[in-house]
Amino acid sequence: MDLFFDTFTNATSMLADPAVLLAIALGAILGSVAGAIPGMTTTLAVGIALPFTFGLRPITAVAFLIAITVGTNYGNSIPAILVGVPGTPSAVLTALDGYKLHQKGQSGVALGTQYIAALLGQLISAFFFVAMVVPLAQLLYVFLAPELWALQLLGIVAIISLTGKNVVKGLVAGALGLAVTMIGPDPVALTGRFTFGIVELRGGLEIVPVVIGALAISELIRSCRQVYDWRQSSGGFSAKFPSFGLARRILRPIGIGTVWGTIMGAIPGGGGVSSAFVAYQQAKLTSKKPEEYGEGSVEGLAANESAQNASQSGEMVPTFGFGIPGSGSMVLLLAALTVHGMVPGPLLVKETPEMLYASTAGLIGGTLVLALIGWPLAKAMLRLVQLDRSVVLVMALLLSMVGVYALRNAVFDVGVMIFFGLVGYFMLRYGYSVAAFALAVTLGHDFEGYLRHGILLTDNSFGTFMSRPVTAILVALSIGLLIFGIAGNIREARRAKAALAISGDALVLVGPQPGAQEPGERVARVEDLGGTALREHEPDQRRERGSDDKT
């Protein structure tokens, strides 16, 4: 309990530091601007900003990055409400109800509801974050190398099992990430490995260029290939607080959204999108007017906004408590902590509690900054939606290159970032988990070090290493998660096969009878759907893909 109150006391005192306060204000504003630009995801925004934080004190850097994530979660909803284009994927449901309210001439009510729900969800969940992470960290203080290795294994497996559609591809991505960290000096013998005679590889690959490339640049490349349905805002608007009666009505969905957002955010891979959908559905089930959901419901808007903003604090619970990031942006935060000399995981809160204070200051301070400037920024952010996206994306790439170059004044690092950006893009395109790859890269050095030091600690006996109770439990949980993920993949494959069979039956039922066939025409059979019948449609699919590529 003392640490709980100490956290808020120290976080408040940090807000009195001019440098920290300026960093938080700048982060919240930049995050809001980035969130309002479609294609600029939270991960991409943090990735661009990350290299510019290495000249700052660690507490200032962490507070700045956290404030950026707070800002993007707020800013992504402005274009969703006013032009129906969500700034980030988590604001999809905001566009569903918010834009319809705007079309009805109730843009002020929509913006006011979004403002209240976002700020309350963020502030309340900040208290949940501290309340959950403090006892977790105290519980894990006794962990030694074997337990820390098993905990990191659980984190990597959790990301693989809970975020990817294919566990096998996730394992390949994780293994590739661990292989990247083996380039350079051995953590125990300190001899060089896999350098291939390249001087720049003698010290290993820098974490930041690899992770920014895999997570941020890959998103940038994917954004270049996306097409958005731009809509013009229908007239002017002004944000205003909802009436007292309406404010009372949205308190219940805000509570539902905050609770579910925090819970779902704390599950690795849950994130803002899942949080928003779960909270939206739960609010609809308990609403007195469920028929309004999807047609311009302030309740649905409030539940979604509070959930996606609360998920930010939820994602930080496993990040700071276990060293297991809850999202791609949290992987980048772990990378920042690592580069600043911190050890991600349960030792972080024990050895450097100021990082917990800084993150709490970033959450609360960023929210308070947005409370002051959120409405004035709305019109400015609307104009950002109508900018030429090619200019925005090129500027984002240039900023990333400048930031990575500034780390060590090395062009080699820029090349590494671009290379792994291409690797990450193709991983995304073919269904491999980029998050698992990036997490393995971030934790890889410590992961191998904990394993080898743990075996030395147990007299070179892997059996003794695995027989430690906590280690055995964590490894068993990792195996269980893998089985759970594989079973889920099998179920999905069976459902897809069943759906394909049903669609095949429908083709047979509605298709022409054999006696009524035109010359050269052929009836599709169920067994043909996996072969010839599908191949007959491939030219059309190729043409569609080609047109997509041209756009």
Helix content: over 70%
Low-confidence stretches: 230-235, 509-551
Net shape: globular
Numbering strands along the chain, what is their spatial order in the largest sheet? 1-2
Q: In DSSP terms, counting alpha (H) and pi (I) runs of 4 or more, how many helices?
A: 22
Oligomer: single chain
Q: List SSEs in N-to-C order.
A: HHHHHHHHHEEHHHHHHHHHHHHH
Largest sheet: 2 strands, antiparallel
What number of structural domains do the residues give?
A: 2
Protein name: C4-dicarboxylate ABC transporter permease
Keywords: Membrane, Transmembrane, Transmembrane helix
InterPro entries: DUF112_TM
Transmembrane segments: 20-37, 44-71, 77-96, 108-133, 139-160, 167-184, 204-221, 258-280, 322-343, 355-378, 390-407, 419-445, 465-487
Which helices and strands occur, and which strands form pairs?
Elements: H1 2-15, H2 18-35, H3 42-49, H4 58-75, H5 77-82, H6 92-103, H7 107-139, H8 145-163, H9 167-181, E1 184-185, E2 192-193, H10 207-224, H11 244-266, H12 271-285, H13 298-321, H14 328-339, H15 346-351, H16 353-385, H17 389-408, H18 411-429, H19 434-457, H20 462-467, H21 469-510, H22 532-550
Antiparallel strand pairs: 1-2
Question: What structural keywords apply?
Answer:
disordered C terminus; C4-dicarboxylate ABC transporter permease; DUF112_TM; transmembrane
